[in-house]
Design a protein that fits this description.
It holds the Pfam family DUF938. This protein has 201 residues and is α/β, with parallel strands linked by helices. It has one domain: Vaccinia Virus protein VP39 (Rossmann fold, 3-Layer(aba) Sandwich). The chain is built from six helices and nine strands.
């Protein structure tokens, strides 16, 4: 069985790593939400071998992630746990120094994002960092024509998906005790939003 492959992961993994590395130098543990194929986890942990990287995704993605991890044989990646962000019992009981997710918010329904921020505080250590990569709208508008076309394509596949508004996400983050510390412009009209936990867990 051929392992899954994401061309977008392959293309963006270097620039993402460059942007998130400063926020991970003093961290020890990372929870990755929606690990996809596992390609990001492998590339990041090869370079950041001081981290313990917990992969996670819906159960149907696990076999593909495990294929990648078995081939890579990297000691500091942990096999995926099942995590549907809207299922409270699936959230890990462990706290992490950082949480990372790429190309997930525009796939999720709005209620999934609400649920994610609601449950997130329980897995965040004190001063933990949340890093979200993907496209976002600002002031209710698409940042490019290509993002508008991409959003149309997403809606055709699943009417509940679509590019989310930055301001709405930031409000949910604030309600969860997170403060925005950076909004990084990335290639191809993407961003990395970086929040820090301000609650004393």
């Amino acid at each position: 069985m051929n392992k899954p492959f994401s061309q977008s992961c392959e293309e963006n993994k270097h620039v993402i790593l460059e942007s998130i590395t400063p926020y991970l130098r003093d961290k020890k543990s990372v929870l990755e939400i929606a690990s996809g194929t596992g390609q990001h986890a492998i590339h990041f942990t090869e370079q950041l071998n001081h981290l313990s990287w917990q992969t996670s995704d819906l159960i149907e993605s696990h076999s593909g992630i495990c294929q990648w991890l078995e081939e890579a044989q990297i000691d500091n990646i942990i096999s995926p746990i099942e995590l549907n962000v809207s299922e409270p019992e699936q959230w890990p009981k462990t706290q992490f120094d950082a949480v990372f997710s790429a190309n997930s918010f525009h796939i999720m329904a709005k209620q999934n994002i609400v649920d994610l921020f609601e449950h997130l505080p329980q897995v965040l250590a004190r001063k933990a960092t949340l890093m979200i990569y993907g496209p976002f709208n600002y002031n209710g508008r698409f940042t490019s024509d290509s993002n508008a076309r991409f959003n149309d394509w997403l809606k055709q596949r699943n009417p509940n998906s679509g590019i989310k508004d930055f301001e709405w996400c930031d409000q949910l983050a604030e309600q969860a005790g997170l403060t925005l510390i950076n909004d990084i412009e990335m290639p191809q009209n993407n961003r990395i939003l970086v929040w820090q936990n301000t609650l004393g867990n």
